[in-house]
Structure formats: C-alpha cells, structure tokens
C-alpha cells in the first residue's frame, strides 16, 4: 500500500557548518604547511589538544558562565560534569601548560592548528566551525615576545604570497584603554560589564565607524534589520574621550604615542601601556619592520576580556570585488595579544603569555581572491582505463608502477564503457588516461591521452573526422616506457 512507503531521510547540512571539497582541502594543507614553516623558523614546536575541554576550563571565554551552553556547544558526561567543544585554541593551551608546567621549558613556544566551535547565530562569512592556527609564547614577561609575534605575523603573510603593502599588523595595548576607562570612572568590579561592552563596541569600529561606535558607547544601536544592541550607557563626555583615543592614530608611531600620552595622564597602568607600545615600535623598527608592516593603531582592542597588555591584528588592505562587483576588503584575518591571567587561573600565580591566531578559512578566501591559490582546479590522478575485465590485474600493475614512482594513479573500477570512462577521468580532473586494449597489448604498447592538452587542442578542430585523424594529444609508447613517458607528460615534456 502507498501509505506503507518508507519516508526518505532528507539530506541536509547543519546551519553554520560547511562541507569542504578536495580542492579546498588541498589549498588549506598547502597554506597550513607554509604557516608551519614560518613558525618553526622562529623556534616554535607543535602541540595538540583535544576538541573537548571541561567547561570551567574555558573560564572567561564564556559569554555568560551561568549558562554553560551560551556561546559554546556543551553537554554533560555520565558524571554530570559539563564538557564543551573548544571555543578557540588559547584556553586549551592554558590548561595544557598549567597541567604540565614543571615539565615544560620556560618560555614555552608552541603552535597548534585545528577546528574550533562557536554556538552562535550563523550568517554570511560567520560559521559555527572554522579552523585556526595559533602560535603562543608562555613564560616571557617582556614585550619583546609581543614584538616577535608581530614580526612573525608579517613574515607569515609574505610567506603566503601576500605582498608588502597588501597587509599590515596593527598593534595596541589594553593597559592604555584600561587607563582611559579608569580616568572616566569605569574602573572597579562594579563596572566590569560596562567595560566589556565598551571593548566590544570599539572592536566594531572598522565596520560601524565613529557614529556606530558612539551609539554603542551610549544608549545603544539599532542595525539595518531592526535588531537593537544595548550600549554601555556612557555620557557624552565619557564617550568622546573613548572616541578621541580610538581615532588617535597619527602619521608615525611616535606621533600616535605622543597624542595618546595625555589621555592616560595620572593612570599608572595606562602610562605603562604607552611605554610598552613605544618599546614594541622600537624593537620591530630596529629589526627592519617599518610602519608599512607593523604600526601602532589605537582602534585595535580585541573583543575578548582576558587580554592584559599588547593586542594585535593582521589586516589585509587590498581591495577585491564581491559577487555584485562592489569593492570590498577582507579586513582582519589574524589577531591576538597578551593574556597573563589565563594560566594563572589554574596555578594561582602570575604566568605571562602572549600569542596570536590566524583564521585559516578566512585567510584562504582572501588568498583565493588574490589569485594565490585555486580551490577549483585541483589536479586529479592518472586514470588507467579498463578495456577488458579479464585483464584487471594488468591494469592494476600499471597503476602500481606509477604509484611506486610517486605518481598519483587509479584504475577505473566502475562498470561502464570507454566513453563513460573518459568522462569519468575528465570529471576527476585526470591529467592523463592510460589505455591498453587488445591491439595495444598484442604490440606490447600503451596509449596515453593528455586530457588537458587535448581539451585545449580540440577547440580548433571542426568535426569528428578531423578529431580521429589528428589523434589529439595522444601518444602510443612501449609498455616499458609507461612511467617515464607519464612523468615527462606531467612535466610538460
């Protein structure tokens, strides 16, 4: 009966998550390998932490610690302990260092790459799962460690093919902003929530501009969709002081610092932050990293509350066109800063730390737009066609020889005929197909078709007769020369 027909399960992707193609995976691997090479040149070693941590280990990461599933994906184990998928790679590192503190060299320099998870509303360019690549130095109190991170960030961009002038590392210091908030009366535990709202407002400066930030510093802001975001509740004078600081960047690093110093007058922490910025500027400039690569920028704050000193972002400055042909910028693709309090949460003593994180997925999109990577035209394996099922072992032997020579190869294992096999090879983006029918086998030969070259040559061929006569991009060689000929064809010979 029709009513008994089993309902098919609908194939659907979870919101905020994406599938990744072979081309995207290959491009990501190449990009991660390049980043890793730079990190290791600076003496950083790899470490890997699990996807899942105890929720309380995430600490200040949680937007609201009274609601364990707010912002993170959380669940309870059989002991009723709250566990969460990692929100980023920094909190797990802090836990790892605290747990292995006595066994690790200090300073401890490490890097990690992996997926992180955000239980937030997805949107354009905003995903619930994405890859990060972090590098951190734990146990170095000097801002020389922060300066080194900034230089390493610049070197990484250039290693990935982003030319000088198409990126900039922007540096600021949270102590300076804390000093300004102290000066306008936002110090103390009672104002912790308002300070965090101020930080998040400033963090949107590049997207919302001065007026948008002013709204968020005051009563609040309604966006284009009608959603209202509650503001920090500052009065006009307080808000203007914050905006004067945010927009205080001048031509040179020295000029910017001269403009900021009066704003933190009377604040010990704020003055200390200004001098730390001056020291970072001096260190990077003496190492050959001018303001075209590393620059003091007072609009950079980083939205997370746990940063305690220098903060930095890597911004891509080149312009591309969106799908409607409108100019757009990718903006920040990496960021980080000093977080001296995270490891201390576990040990009860100060442990200085600094580091930064590259948004791998976002950076891959930028590199694709810049033409540095191509995620759509990956090259597939050489395909050995099967003309006679009874000779499958012969075809497998050909593929084995190619693989032993380091050439990707596969035998067609479907049940279709020759035309379908060639269509399959084309869809696999195979550079070459290997054909050996009974005639070629009797002569001890193989036929090799260069599919890419053949497609190009075919554009000038008028009809099938001309095609057959031309034997487009096709070679017939002795069976013993299979590997050498394929290698030469792949090399363009």
What report would you give on this structure?
Keywords: Aminoacyl-tRNA synthetase, ATP-binding, Cytoplasm, Ligase, Nucleotide-binding, Protein biosynthesis. InterPro entries: aa-tRNA-synth_II (IPR006195), aa-tRNA-synth_II/BPL/LPL (IPR045864), Anticodon-bd (IPR004154), Anticodon-bd_dom_sf (IPR036621), His-tRNA-ligase (IPR015807), HisRS-like_core (IPR041715), HisRS/HisZ (IPR004516), HisRS_anticodon (IPR033656). It is an enzyme of class 6 (ligase). This protein is of the alpha+beta class and 493 residues long. It has two domains: 22-369, 2-Layer Sandwich (BirA Bifunctional Protein, domain 2); 382-490, Rossmann fold (3-Layer(aba) Sandwich), CATH 3.40.50. The chain contains 18 helices and 18 strands. It has helices at residues 22-41, 55-58, 90-99, 144-159, 174-183, 192-202, 205-217, 236-246, 253-260, 268-286, 344-347, 360-369, 392-404, 418-427, 438-443, 451-458, 464-470, 482-490, and strands spanning 45-46, 52-54, 74-76, 82-85, 108-117, 129-138, 167-173, 220-222, 228-230, 294-296, 310-321, 327-338, 353-359, 382-384, 409-411, 432-435, 445-450, 474-478. The strands form four sheets. Strands 1-5-6-13-12-11-7-10 form an eight-stranded mixed β-sheet. Helix 4 (144-159) crosses helix 10, helix 5 (174-183) packs antiparallel against helix 10 and helix 7 (205-217) packs antiparallel against helix 8 (236-246). The model is unreliable at 60-69 and 456-471 (pLDDT under 50).
């Amino acid at each position: 009966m029709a009513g008994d027909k089993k309902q098919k399960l609908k194939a659907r992707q979870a919101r905020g998550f994406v599938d990744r193609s072979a081309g995207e995976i290959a491009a990501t691997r190449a990009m991660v390998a390049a980043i890793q090479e730079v990190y290791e040149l600076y003496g950083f070693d790899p470490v890997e932490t699990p996807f899942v941590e105890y929720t309380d280990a995430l600490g200040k990461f949680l937007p609201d610690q009274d609601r364990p599933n707010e912002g993170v994906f959380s669940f309870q184990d059989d002991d009723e302990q709250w566990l969460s998928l990692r929100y980023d790679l920094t909190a797990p590192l802090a836990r790892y260092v605290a747990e292995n503190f006595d066994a690790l060299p200090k300073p401890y320099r490490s890097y990690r790459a992996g997926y992180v998870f955000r239980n937030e509303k997805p949107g354009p360019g905003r995903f619930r799962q994405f890859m990060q690549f972090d590098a951190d130095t734990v146990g170095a109190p000097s801002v020389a460690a922060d300066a080194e991170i900034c230089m390493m960030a610049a070197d990484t961009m250039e290693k990935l093919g982003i030319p000088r002038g198409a990126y900039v590392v922007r540096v600021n210091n949270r102590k300076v902003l804390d000093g300004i908030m102290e000066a306008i009366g936002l110090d103390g535990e009672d104002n912790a929530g308002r300070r965090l709202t101020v930080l998040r407002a400033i963090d949107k400066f590049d997207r919302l501009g001065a007026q948008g930030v002013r709204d968020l510093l005051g009563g609040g802001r309604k966006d284009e969709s009608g959603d209202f975001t509650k503001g920090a509740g500052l009065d006009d004078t307080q808000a203007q002081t914050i905006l004067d600081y945010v927009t205080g960047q001048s031509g040179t690093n020295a000029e910017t610092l001269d403009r900021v110093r009066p704003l933190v007058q009377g604040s010990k922490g704020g003055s200390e932050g200004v001098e730390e910025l001056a020291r970072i500027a001096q260190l990077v400039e003496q190492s050959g990293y001018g303001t075209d690569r590393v620059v003091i920028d007072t609009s950079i704050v980083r939205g997370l509350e746990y940063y305690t000193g220098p903060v930095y972002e890597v911004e891509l400055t080149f312009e591309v066109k969106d799908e409607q042909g409108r100019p757009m910028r990718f903006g920040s693709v990496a960021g980080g800063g000093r977080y001296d309090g995270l490891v201390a949460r576990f040990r009860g003593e100060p442990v200085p730390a600094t580091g930064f994180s590259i948004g791998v997925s976002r950076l891959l999109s930028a590199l694709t737009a810049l033409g540095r990577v191509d995620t759509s035209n990956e090259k597939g394996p050489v395909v050995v066609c099967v003309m006679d099922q009874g000779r499958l072992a012969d075809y497998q032997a050909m593929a084995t020889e190619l693989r032993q020579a380091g050439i990707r190869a596969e035998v067609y294992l479907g049940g279709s005929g020759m035309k379908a096999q060639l269509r399959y090879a084309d869809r696999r983006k195979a550079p070459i197909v290997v054909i050996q029918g009974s005639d070629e086998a009797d002569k001890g030969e193989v036929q090799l078709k260069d599919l890419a070259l053949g497609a190009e040559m075919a554009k000038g061929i008028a009809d099938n007769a001309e095609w057959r006569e031309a034997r487009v991009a096709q070679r017939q060689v002795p069976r013993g020369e299979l590997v050498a000929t394929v290698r030469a064809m792949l090399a363009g010979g």
